[in-house]
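Run: sequence + BIS(adenosine)-5'-pentaphosphate -> complex structure.
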Amino acid sequence: MRIVLLGAPGSGKGTQTDSIIERYGVSTVATGDLLRAEVAAGTDLGQRAKPYMDAGNLVPFDIVLGMIENAVRKLAQSNPKGFMMDGFPRDLPQAEALDKLLDKLGQPLDAVLFIDVDYEEIVKRLLGRGRADDNEDTIRNRLRVFEEKTAPLIDFYTKKGLLHTIKGTGTVEDIGQRIRAALDKIA
Ligand code: AP5
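>> structure
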């Protein structure tokens, strides 16, 4: 099973990841985690990415492309049960690049899960978490970036017949149950 988890910052993508891995045996990658690891290790890539992440903007594609391509290739080739991507693609150029790469690998996507949560709930959640980019100004900018760049992917994947919208409020278990209901049909 090959899936993308789509959702605004703080919609609960990371929170749902472990139970998806456990149930379906897929491998996963979160581009935000990869980037934070590069920042923590002080690599050239991390240093170039950090100012964008601190401001809540997308890191330019030419900076993240190589890292993401490697991660997707590894994912697509390492686990016959499939993979799940969290945090990628983030805009139309990334979605088109992903399509091309997966076509080349003969592994097209099976589904895109969009976790839908309203923005005021998200601001509350993220202010309670306290990651480096979880201050109010940066959160609001991340939401603006989501609206402008990432939300068009909802339409993009709807047209391809891949989109499943999951109501992202309620308990973590409630949301997990909705995700299972969607994924069991395609697993
Ligand atoms: P990234 O790491 O992807 O962060 P994000 O999109 O802002 O997403 P979050 O990790 O904040 O949210 P989440 O949906 O995983 O929610 P979570 O489960 O943690 O990206 C960070 C930055 O990296 C970007 O701004 C950009 O600069 C850069 N970047 C990353 N990918 C890139 C790419 N492809 N191209 C360019 N740049 C890229 O939950 C959030 C909180 O809510 C937690 O505290 C959790 O406990 C709580 N919570 C979860 N579910 C519930 C619930 N049901 N009820 C109550 N609270 C809940």
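>> summary
The mean pLDDT is 96. The pocket of BIS(adenosine)-5'-pentaphosphate is lined by residues 7, 9-15, 31-32, 35, 52-53, 56-59, 64, 87-88, 90, 94, 125-126, 129, 142, 171-172, 175 (CB under 6 Å).
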